[in-house]
């Protein structure tokens, strides 16, 4: 996590006590043409391009109230500044949860998680934040509050604001309040893990999971030093190239059956040794998987989005570029997060733009930079090349923020 003072050119920071005060602050900034940088818990400030225009910080941490929680309806309405940990604690009292993991949950806010569209290992079985936001309130670049959806959502014409604002990095509006669908908290949780001698073996096991009789909550392909000596997984066996950890959740009896069934399926594919992680070891691995994308020391952390069938190929490419890289792949979804151990400024054009981005594009996806200690990264390096969708996003930006004061220059449509 980068300190706010080090990452944003702020002249001052406002922490409005309520949604009306936040709207008034944005309205004043609009009249003055002053840039506004929305701030949640400050855990994702490395994400996106560096800001260059001095402006005000707009912290949402004063907006952390629970507005409505009809637990029987499986929905909750909260202000956007609530931390993910506080939200989890509120839901846990009713044995419910939002199955979305983000690093530094005690600091990260719900609004920030939605603005960055962050998701963790449970996305395979539970989906992403876009699937849970059913109501949203925000303030546009002119200081005008707007909202959409609610506890009951009807089909309407026009923008789907819930999905439009998810992942927009605070450039279309400052999110102030959210209504979420929630789920019952599973009673049982465990992992079945195995060490893999090569990536073709990983490919065989991943392909077989498509027809497995089990229903995984997470499918994690792990490689590199971070995972080789992971305490929850135990030390890797000699000759291990990668490790596969499959998370299983549900009622205790259901989880036990799936563990036995998956172990049997793996044996039929030649995996003679697997290890069960339950109780504290399972909780620790879920935590390690959730925290992995946040690295204060890695020179470059990227996220690739691919068709799932090309996951192992991209992992192999990343390891060729840096054999000491640590990699976490949400393999069932084609998401590959790479923390490079060694990456210099000259490698940006040669390896990131020249090899990794084209490989992801060929696999139907893209590469974005999650964080980097390398200065001066261009839009091309951080977001990849512009596509046909970029101009449509720029049009939406012009409608919601005509003076370009909301997080200016930080998202992929940096030039309006």
Structure commentary:
- The protein is built from 14 helices and 18 strands.
- It has helices spanning 4-7, 19-32, 84-92, 110-116, 123-126, 161-165, 199-209, 225-228, 252-268, 279-291, 311-321, 345-362, 379-383, 388-400, and strands spanning 10-14, 36-39, 55-59, 66-68, 75-79, 96-97, 133-139, 145-149, 174-181, 183-184, 188-196, 218-223, 242-250, 275-278, 300-305, 326-330, 335-340, 366-372.
- An eight-stranded antiparallel beta sheet has the order 14-11-13-12-16-17-15-18, with helices on both faces. The protein has a five-stranded antiparallel beta sheet with strand order 4-5-9-7-8.
- The model has no long low-confidence stretch (mean pLDDT 93).
Structure summarized in a few sentences:
It contains 14 helices and 18 strands. The chain is of the alpha+beta class and 416 residues long. It folds into three domains: 1-185 and 391-416, 2-Layer Sandwich (Uridine Diphospho-n-acetylenolpyruvylglucosamine Reductase, domain 3), CATH 3.30.465.10; 188-285, Alpha-Beta Plaits (2-Layer Sandwich), CATH 3.30.70; 300-385, Alpha-Beta Plaits (2-Layer Sandwich), CATH 3.30.70.
> In the CATH hierarchy, what is the class of the largest domain?
Alpha Beta
Please give the CATH architecture of the largest domain: 2-Layer Sandwich
The average pLDDT score comes to 93
N-to-C CA distance: 29 Å
The outline comes out as globular
Instruction: Give the DSSP E fraction (strand runs of 2 or more residues).
Output: 15-25%
**Main β-sheet: number of strands, strand sense, barrel status?**
8 strands, antiparallel
Count of separate DSSP helical elements = 14
Radius of gyration: 22 Å
Coarse structural class = alpha+beta
């Amino acid at each position: 996590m980068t300190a706010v003072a080090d990452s944003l050119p702020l002249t001052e920071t406002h922490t409005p006590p309520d949604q009306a005060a936040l709207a008034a602050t944005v309205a004043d900034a609009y009249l003055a043409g002053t840039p506004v940088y929305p701030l949640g818990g400050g855990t994702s400030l490395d994400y996106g391009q560096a800001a260059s225009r001095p402006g005000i910080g707009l912290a949402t941490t004063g907006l952390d109230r629970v507005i409505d929680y009809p637990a029987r309806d499986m929905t909750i309405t909260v202000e956007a500044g609530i931390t993910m940990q506080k939200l989890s604690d509120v839901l846990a009292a009713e044995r419910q949860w939002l199955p979305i993991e983000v690093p530094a949950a005690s600091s990260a806010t719900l609004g920030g998680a939605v603005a960055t569209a962050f998701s963790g290992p449970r996305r395979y079985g539970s989906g992403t934040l876009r699937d849970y936001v059913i109501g949203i309130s925000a303030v546009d670049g002119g200081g005008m509050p707007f909202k959409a959806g609610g506890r009951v959502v009807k089909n309407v014409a026009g923008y789907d604001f819930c999905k439009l604002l998810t992942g927009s990095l605070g450039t279309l509006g400052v999110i102030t309040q959210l209504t979420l669908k929630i789920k019952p908290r599973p009673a049982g949780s465990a992992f079945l893990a195995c060490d893999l001698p090569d990536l073709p073996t990983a490919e065989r096991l991943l392909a077989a999971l498509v027809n497995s009789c089990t229903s995984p909550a997470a499918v994690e392909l792990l490689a590199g030093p971070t995972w080789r000596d992971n305490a929850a997984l135990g030390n890797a066996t000699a000759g291990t190239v990668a490790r596969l950890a499959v998370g299983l959740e549900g009622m205790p009896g259901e989880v036990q059956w799936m563990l036995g069934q998956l172990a049997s399926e793996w044996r039929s594919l030649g995996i003679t040794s697997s290890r069960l992680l339950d109780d504290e070891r399972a909780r620790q691995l879920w935590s390690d998987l959730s925290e992995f994308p946040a690295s204060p020391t890695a020179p470059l952390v990227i996220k690739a989005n691919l068709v799932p069938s090309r996951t192992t190929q991209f992992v192999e490419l990343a390891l060729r570029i840096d054999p000491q890289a640590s990699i976490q792949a949400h393999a069932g979804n084609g998401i590959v997060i790479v923390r490079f151990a060694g990456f210099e400024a000259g490698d940006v054009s040669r390896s990131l733009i020249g090899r990794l981005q084209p490989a992801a594009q060929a696999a139907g996806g893209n590469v974005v930079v999650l964080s980097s200690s390398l200065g001066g990264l261009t839009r091309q390096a951080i977001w990849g090349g512009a596509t046909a969708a970029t101009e449509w996003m720029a049009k939406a930006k012009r409608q919601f923020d005509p003076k370009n004061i909301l997080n200016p220059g930080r998202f992929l449509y940096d030039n309006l």
